[in-house]
Amino acid sequence: MRVALPTKDGQIFLQYDKAKEFTIYDVEIELVKSKEIVPLGEMSIADFLETQQINVVICADIRSAGKTLLRTKRIELTYGVTGDADDVMVRYLSGEALGTVEENAWLRMELDVRMKEEL
């Protein structure tokens, strides 16, 4: 299984559709076998995910068009998740619930603040 998280400096990047790189984890039997940071380059996210043979995407904020695209490609999606990418992977593999309703409500406020900082 290949899991992709849009990242910047080891943290989940808040805007999925504006990501410039993804951290990709190769997972076998709930263990991370390898990890690499892959730049998106000139490729669209859809083509990138297909080329990289991604099975799961974990991200912070994603628009409905992105959700629809992942559904059509049969890629599992978990959104509303922030923090250190490695820590998130540990939580994901341990079966911890990620992206709860409360976290999503908090995330919207956090996104507004951090997007202003990134501009």
Question: Can you put this structure into words, describing what you see?
Answer:
The termini are far apart. This protein is of the alpha/beta class. Mean pLDDT is 86; it is low at 100-108. Strands 1, 2, 3, 4, 5 and 6 form a six-stranded mixed β-sheet that branches. Helix content is 36%, strand content 27%. It contains four helices and six strands; from the N terminus they run ββββαβαβαα.
SSE blueprint:
Layout (H helix, E strand, L loop, with lengths): L1 E7 L2 E2 L8 E8 L2 E9 L5 H7 L4 E3 L5 H9 L3 E3 L6 H9 L7 H18 L1
Q: Per DSSP, what share of the residues sits in E-state strands of 2 or more residues?
A: 25-35%
Rg, rounded, reads 13 Å
State the distance separating the first and last CA atoms. 34 Å
Q: Would you report the number of β strands? A: 6
Q: What overall form do the CA principal axes indicate?
A: globular
State the helical fraction.
25-40%
Q: How would you characterize the largest beta sheet? A: 6 strands, mixed
Number of helical runs?
4
Average pLDDT for all residues: 86
Enumerate the spans where pLDDT stays under 50 for 5 or more consecutive residues: 100-108
Order of helices and strands: EEEEHEHEHH
Query: Based on helices, strands and strand pairing, what is the structural class?
Result: alpha/beta
Defining traits:
single chain, globular, six-stranded mixed sheet, 36% helix, alpha/beta, 119 residues
Brief synopsis:
The chain contains 4 helices and 6 strands.
